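sorry for the late reply, my laptop died twice this morning and i had to redo everyting from scratch. anyway the thing you sent over, i finally got around to it. pasting the sequence first so we're on the same page, its 119 residues, then the predicted structure underneath. double check i copied it right bc i was rushing
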Amino acid sequence: MNDTKWRELCAGIRELPFPPAYQVKVLDENEPSPSTIERAPPYWGDWASTPEAALGVHVEWIRVTPRYKRHVARLLPPIIEDCSDQLRSLLRRLRIPFVESDGLFTIYGHASGIDFDTT
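ok and here's the structure:
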């Protein structure tokens, strides 16, 4: 994926109800960061400070979790917010190839032999 697509994605994230958390694997690292990602983390992704220029060149893949665990009160169970449909729509509109599996969206910066979700 080129820098233009990464910039479009980072800008498009602002259209979602919240900026989803993500895990990123860069080409020159053995492990992704963070090493694990929850299905519904209690934090948002930091898309605003993501250096787009580095993304297009160095990212092998980015795995996005479209759910957010919002705590409303200490004695009440958390509320799980989900923007899966909006994220899927954004990726398709921007023509960004992705793979959706187990509730996570994986976007590849560098890939070959991957069957992408394009419909």
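The chain has a mean pLDDT of 85.
thats about all i looked at so far, will dig more tmrw
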